[in-house]
């Protein structure tokens, strides 16, 4: 079923106010998500925070079922945390590494992940190595295969980078990792909510994502998937009385499920609302969302290419809803401000968020216009007309 765009827009209060092309930053929340969050805040105010939590247990638990359904995983493989970075960290810092071990990754790596690689390689004497990309800009699968040996202790892939339309061949990488018996950590922060994710197909042992981007949930929630039989390969880098039970004065026991990566205190309203957001995405169908996002982004790229002095910089054989470009005439940050003054939201991708890729391709600051299924051809027209005026 194709997306009923008119209904999607009616159900999204922000659509009446802005042309929102910052879905890779934080997408607009649907009304139902906003309502779920407000309802729980009201419950907290009326009943008390703990009592409200007791009254909303089912809604909180539903969030785990929703994420499990999104990923085709089991609910006990899901942890809910503050953001995608902490989700990824809880897996990465929990993986044992020693001197001489190798981590393989790609130039599309997100800064926070790469900073963590650098910190841990300094601590442990392990090395991080960047696998070459092919002519389309995606990870080169032959180069990856050739780089494997028994010192490789992790393959860490960014599925969709923060700075462009590239979609890395995550399932093919998963197959290579599985064949070689190497742990595979997938950063699905920008892919979750815009394209189908099935952890079985992807072959991911660990996968991280966030609420506020293409999943359209509230800010301040992220999720981690860890495959059941991989759970005990990780030693959670931090524990509390929710992640573990203090069983004797000198002993504790880890929880049996992925919630060992969580903490006890949390924003319950945001968690509930996140569950509603994931169910909302599933009610449209991720396939239907992907079938709309991809051509919409292609339309935007084609329009941008017709504008003189505008350079589209997206890589990839398969491209997603993130569109990036720069112009000869005006800096990205200035463009962003000028567009915002006209109620058009875009963001700026600076080299600091993806340093390896930015240096490799000598990228300046890029304007990032990321589309979602509720965006329209009219809005794209509006954006391109405004851009043409400014440049
Ligand atoms: C945004 C982003 C992250 C970090 O997500 P947070 O929820 O902000 O922690 C990680 N990886 C990629 C590719 C991102 O775009």
CATH superfamily (homologous) name of the largest domain: Type I PLP-dependent aspartate aminotransferase-like (Major domain)
Strand order of the largest sheet: 2-8-7-6-5-3-4
CATH-level-2 architecture of the largest domain: 3-Layer(aba) Sandwich
* Radius of gyration, in angstroms, nearest whole number: 21 Å
Describe what you observe in this structure.
It is a single chain. The strands form four sheets. The chain has a seven-stranded mixed sheet with strand order 2-8-7-6-5-3-4, with helices on both faces. The protein has a four-stranded antiparallel sheet with strand order 11-12-15-14. The model has no long low-confidence stretch (mean pLDDT 98). The longest helix has 20 residues, at 286-305. By secondary structure, the protein is α/β, with parallel strands linked by helices. It has two domains: 5-29 and 285-390, Aspartate Aminotransferase, domain 1 (Alpha-Beta Complex); 32-283, Type I PLP-dependent aspartate aminotransferase-like (Major domain) (Aspartate Aminotransferase, domain 2). Helix 4 (57-71) crosses helix 10. It is globular. 40% of the residues lie in helices and 16% in strands. Residues 83-85, 110, 112, 158, 161-162, 187, 189-190, 210, 222 line the site of pyridoxal-5'-phosphate (PLP).
